[in-house]
Amino acid sequence: xxxxxxxxxxxxxxxxxxxxxxVSAILGLSLAWLWLxxxxxxxxxxxxxxxxxxxxxxxxxxxxxxxxIEGKVARNATFGQLMGAHGFSPETVYRLTRTSRPVxxxxxxxxxxxxxxxxxxxxxxxxxxxxxxxYKYLQLKRTGDGFRAQxxxxxxxxxxxxxxxxxxxxxxxTLSDLQExxxxxxxxxxxxSWDIDFNTEIQRGDHFRLMVExxxxxxxxxxxxxILAVEFHNAGKRYTGYRFEDPExxxxxxxxxxxxxxxxxxxxxxxxxxxxxxxxxxxxxxxLGKRRPHLxxxxxxxxxxRVVAAGNGRVRFRGWKGGxxxxxxxxxxxxxxxxxxxxxxxxxxxxRGSKVMQxxxxxxxxxxxxxxxxxxxxxxRRNGVFVNPLTLKMKPSKPLKxxxxxxxxxxxLKWQQQLAALAPPPEQTRQASSAHGFxxxxxx
Length: 444
What we know:
This protein folds into three domains: about 65-155, Nuclear Transport Factor 2, Chain: A; about 155-265 and about 400-435, Nuclear Transport Factor 2, Chain: A; about 275-390, Glucose Permease (Domain IIA), CATH 2.70.70.
């Protein structure tokens, strides 16, 4: 009995071992079968589930909250005062001023110009923008711990549009009725300033049509660009001006025959005034009460109105001269000398020997000397003899170069066709310039 127990135990162990071997064999065959299954999921009886958690999507940090402040520079305000009024420290002002100096001097900010501040949520400055002029603005933008200064061009949308009208009382009034700005009148007068005295020669019934660039920001008309072509009928005479830029970059206005509108002398050294006394050899002097020659033209205008040089030249006299009061005398070429009397003051930096250019401001209207009210006494002398400035005829000072005439004709024909497409004014209005006893005011 004692010998049979170990044999029974061994038998039972063998049976268990055989069972383990059989289970292992079956499990091995099953794994091999699964390994040989095809990749097609439809052919597989079951696919194991993937319970892995997908990685979190990385989102960029939200932009800092900005508060934008817009405004205009107050009168007599400095940059430091402007920034201080919005809570920025003198240290910030110093950093901005130093950063901007190589690009733009912030001491030169001007009253009325626009500015914009961007303030971060923590109160720090993110950006400062200032409109330097109509063409560019200054930007100081935060970059890390500092700022970067840039002058950035203002990008306008440019549209070429027509304007046409007939003068009833004044050029400004007509343009106002057409929903146009005063600047268009100034620009038109500038183009014809050598041929038409807009102070005295504008009449009722005069009419015009032109093509002009209008510059837009966000679909809002901001300012005018260049007048591209203009036709002005004054007292029955037609004047034309076509803007042309030659391949050398020279820009000018020329009439339909290709003649430059620019002359050696302007028709008037004061814009938008009226003539209070004309050239005469027997004028009753308003102060002395005697008849004596008045060898010039008096332009009545408010004190402080700008006076410009009628032509290029050099100052021969600047100072007080008896009854003329404050007087400027300019020597020009071809034997011409011009005189500007009764000035309230002279332009800064102007002195005897100064070189001046046509259209440059030389002084301001006043009532110094023998004068009953603010006006400019303007005189012209040619080869030692005083001549009437209103009847002085001058040839074009800068003709179109022959090699550019063909290119100019193409430009002219383009604008002629567009101007011709504009509706002409009514016949009765065009004939109104012959009405007796009526002369329109230009501005007032």
